[in-house]
């Protein structure tokens, strides 16, 4: 008599563009539940292969059914828009703690937790230094998740994610910005940016769910080291569009919103060695020149 083991169950929190790409790559091989606060998205989730669950991370009383539901959890939901704490992640963890904890949990954070590094190249051992409330909320979520993993026997992986792009991602291709004529900084004021194709990020999420080390941070970026202006000029050449206009930082302070300026004030180059060595991920789009054409 042979013992047939049931496949692990996956719960996706915040199943937007990246979550749908994860579902496509799974191809129905696992039972997947997807938490959503919008019943209007249920048909999309079902069509992608997930069982939709209604729940709102801002309303903890709606999350009770998540306890003990899944063996693995992929947390893609952003924090709320105010404050320096991520109350949504806190509500999620309280719900998961009510029953058997998942074996593994993967959280997509942001590389913004580092603040400005002056263009330095570094790995995941660099201390965080969030310069905005938005980044501070992510640091708060990371700390709560790693504590949960250490105290509830759950293998937590933190993926720090830079700018996500893809030709079929809403707002995720630079051609839209190029068509609007949005400027970039002059070379002497420019900042290093980091990127990852949305399909590679989805593959990194799956790799971390099965191969991530306990309470480990991993940079989920490609191999490029481009200044922001170089990135948009590359996209312009590939799309056969005019290059973006260049302005000084002083001009940007007069023309841009505080949110836009926050992205123009941080410069860093991320080492992705753990992504390749520990998660054993081979990037399909190691350079934007490949991913922008995909």
From TrEMBL:
Q: Please list the residue ranges annotated as the NAD-dependent epimerase/dehydratase domain.
A: 21-213
The Swiss-Prot or TrEMBL record annotates one GO molecular function as: aldehyde dehydrogenase (NAD+) activity
GO cellular component, as recorded:
cytoplasm
Checking InterPro entries in the record gives: Epimerase_deHydtase, NAD(P)-bd_dom_sf, NAD(P)-dependent_oxidoreduct
Q: Which domain of life is it from?
A: Bacteria
Query: Which Pfam family, just one, is annotated for this protein?
Result: Epimerase
PANTHER family tied to this protein: NAD(P)-BINDING DOMAIN-CONTAINING PROTEIN-RELATED (PTHR48079:SF6), PROTEIN YEEZ (PTHR48079)
UniProt-recorded name of the protein: Nucleoside-diphosphate-sugar epimerase
């Amino acid at each position: 008599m042979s013992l047939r083991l049931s496949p692990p169950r996956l719960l996706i929190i915040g199943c937007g563009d990246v979550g749908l790409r994860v579902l496509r790559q799974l191809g129905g091989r696992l039972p997947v539940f997807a938490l959503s606060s919008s019943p209007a998205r249920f048909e999309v989730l079902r069509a992608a292969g997930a069982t939709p669950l209604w729940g709102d991370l801002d309303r903890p009383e709606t999350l009770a059914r998540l306890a003990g539901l899944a063996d693995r959890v992929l947390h893609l939901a952003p924090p709320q828009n105010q404050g320096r704490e991520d109350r949504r992640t806190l509500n999620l963890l309280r719900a998961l703690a009510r029953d058997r904890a998942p074996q593994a949990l993967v959280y997509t954070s942001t590389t913004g937790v580092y603040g400005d590094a002056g263009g330095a190249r570094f790995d995941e051992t660099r201390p965080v230094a969030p310069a905005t409330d938005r980044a501070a909320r992510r640091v708060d979520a990371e700390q709560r998740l790693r504590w949960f993993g250490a105290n509830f026997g759950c293998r937590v992986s933190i993926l720090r994610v830079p700018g996500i792009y893809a030709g079929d991602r809403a707002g995720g291709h630079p051609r839209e910005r190029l068509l609007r004529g949005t400027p970039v900084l002059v070379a002497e004021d420019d900042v290093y940016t980091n990127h990852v194709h949305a399909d590679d990020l989805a593959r990194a999420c799956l790799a971390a769910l099965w191969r991530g080390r306990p309470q480990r941070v991993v940079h989920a970026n490609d191999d490029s080291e481009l200044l922001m202006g170089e990135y948009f000029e590359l996209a312009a050449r590939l799309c056969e569009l005019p290059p973006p206009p260049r302005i000084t930082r002083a001009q940007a302070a007069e023309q841009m919103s505080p949110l836009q300026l926050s992205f123009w004030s941080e410069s860093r180059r991320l080492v992705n060695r753990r992504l390749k060595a520990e998660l054993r991920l081979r990037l399909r789009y190691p350079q934007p020149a490949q991913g922008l054409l995909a």
